[in-house]
Amino acid sequence: MDETEFDIPAAMAESVRSRAGAWALVRGFAAYWGEPLGPGDGFTDAELDAAERRLGLRLPVALREAYRLFGRRADLTSSQDVLLTPDELHVLDGALVYRAENQACAHWGVLLDDLGREDPPTVGRLDLADKSQERWEPWEERFSTAAAAMAMTEKLLEDHELTDFLHLDEDLPDGLRELPALGRNLRWYQGPEVLVGVAEGAWMVARARTPQALEALYEAVPGDWMGE
């Protein structure tokens, strides 16, 4: 797939409009930055049905679609944080938990009251020393948006020779094109054969398609890159 076949700005913009757009982004992104999605990359209906029986609840349509589409693709779900498997899904203080930070310092879920919605909002919760202060807080307005952002973020964070990290002291140069917003506290940029994510305005992670593209990024954005 070449750049003309995957228009990432258009795909990202469409991903926040519908579930179909979100899944189209995941498919195109997976193929362009790694391997195309295949039949074995998702969990089966039988596995998801078993989770529903164990939990005594119905999973939202969007959650089932995401798990069936790419739930087993670790590069899109679990490079740093972890998408729980169907048999790990659990309820915590009124929410169905589907994702955990890699050291269990935070969790993401869907409120039980929203499970009947096809594409419900998601919530996040920090693990605090004072458990009485822990609360579910709004995260993304749609599960499909959260899942698409997860796929892009986890791919960038994959342990790969063409991925690198930098603490930003200044704004990014003009040579990087800002992409449509996707994901809480994230900004996305595109350069020649490079995708960049900036978190909280401080840390950036870059993924290049070729060693030459990564070297060109080092020249365009000088700094104390971790892997340089």
Characteristic key phrases:
7 helices, TATA-Binding Protein, alpha+beta, SMI1/KNR4-like, 228 residues, 2 domains
What layout of secondary structure does this protein have?
Blueprint lengths: L7 H8 L3 H15 L11 H11 L5 H10 L3 H4 L4 E2 L6 E3 L2 E6 L5 E6 L11 E4 L10 E2 L4 H14 L6 E5 L9 E2 L7 E6 L2 E6 L3 E6 L2 H10 L8
Antiparallel strand pairs: 1-3, 2-3, 3-4, 4-5, 5-6, 7-11, 8-9, 9-10, 10-11
How many structural domains can be distinguished in the coordinates?
Answer: 2
CATH superfamily descriptor of the largest domain: SMI1/KNR4-like
How is the quaternary structure best described?
Answer: single chain
CATH class division of the largest domain: Alpha Beta
Notes on the structure:
By secondary structure, this protein is an alpha+beta fold. It has two domains: 3-150, SMI1/KNR4-like; 160-220, TATA-Binding Protein (2-Layer Sandwich), CATH 3.30.310. It contains seven helices and eleven strands. Strands 1, 2, 3, 4, 5 and 6 form a six-stranded antiparallel sheet that branches. It has a five-stranded antiparallel sheet with strand order 7-11-10-9-8. The protein is globular, with a radius of gyration of 18 Å. It starts with 7 loop residues before the first helix and ends in an 8-residue tail after the last helix. The model has no long low-confidence stretch (mean pLDDT 92).
Summarize the structure.
This protein is an alpha+beta fold and 228 residues long. It folds into two domains: 3-150, SMI1/KNR4-like (3-Layer(aba) Sandwich); 160-220, TATA-Binding Protein, CATH 3.30.310. It contains seven helices and eleven strands.
